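Database export, one record per block. Field names are fixed; values are copied verbatim from the stored entry.
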Amino acid sequence: MKKKFSKSWIGSKQPRKQRKYLANAPLHLKKKMICANLSKALREKFGKRSSPLRKNDEVKIMRGKFKGKRGKVLRVMLKMQMIEVEGAQVKKMDGSKVNIKLNPSNVQIMEMNVDDKKRIKNMKKGIENKSKEKIVEEKKENSKTPTGDKK
């Protein structure tokens, strides 16, 4: 497999080419790909379905052995495209505990880390854009006059 990332790649139906694109993507693009669904409350608040994961976000595990557990994101591994969640641990043979690595698609964001003002500002932009779109749609509907059938 070539190591080079293609900037001009448009898309393909072939799963092998999609996997290759993800595997060879630079880290600044992989960061955007590590997303998880937002809880219903956060969806209503921000007007988005998903958001990139960050350290200290509180998530709920939706799939696998630890389904239903809640915990904070301890680590986001961009190269592996995996995350570690507090409380999702397995015991090794020597008795020590190790955090398991989870695919970000298998978790749901329950609370977001709000320390970064820029992140919240970007999330709120989505709300403003959607509200502007609704206003434009309402104006279009109001400007259209209903035409009656004349016989």
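Remark 1: Residues 145 and 151 are 19 Å apart (CA to CA).
Remark 2: Strands lie at 35-38, 50-52, 58-61, 70-77, 82-91, 97-102, 107-111.
End of record.
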